[in-house]
Amino acid sequence: MLRLTDLKLPLDHGEAGLTAAILRRLGITATELTGYSVAKRSHDARKRGAIALIYAVDVDTPCEVSLLQRFADDPHVRPTPDTEYHFVATAPGRIEHRPLVIGFGPCGLFAGLVLAQMGFRKIILDRGKT
Q1: CA atoms within 13 Å, Cβ hemisphere of 77
Q2: How far apart are CA 70 and CA 61, in angstroms?
């Protein structure tokens, strides 16, 4: 997929206006556009009489490689960044000491959750009420 940024459209545009802007920016036909999804939409209200919407769109097209080569110097046409969450570690098969989390507040709960998702058998300690 391609990430197409800085698409500026008027405030009252329709769905067809966004599709037409994508086709015009990339210079492709409607048959070459498989689909798209809006990654970000923001307002540009710097000029009082000309408020515009600015889009960042993820475009799906079979001619992605050729478009990346054609727009190699354009900073607004790039591959879609990987936004998947990747765990920083996985639990080894056998460890000598189990991870220890001190406190059962929001941060302690979250730390315990992340450790459990990575496969660690953690220990959570909390002082509790006196």
Answers
A1: 19
A2: 14
How does pLDDT run across 11-40, given as a tens digit for each residue? Answer: 888 888 999 999 999 988 889 999 999 999
Q: What is the dihedral of CA 44, 50, 56, 60, to 10 degrees?
A: 170
Euclidean distance between CA atoms 78 and 39, whole angstroms: 13
Structure-token pair, residue 47: 């000029």
For 7-15, the CB contacts below 8 A with 24+ separation are 7/54, 7/55, 7/56, 7/57, 8/44, 8/52, 8/53, 8/54, 8/55, 9/52, 9/53, 9/54, 9/55, 10/52, 10/53, 11/43, 11/51, 11/52, 11/53, 13/53
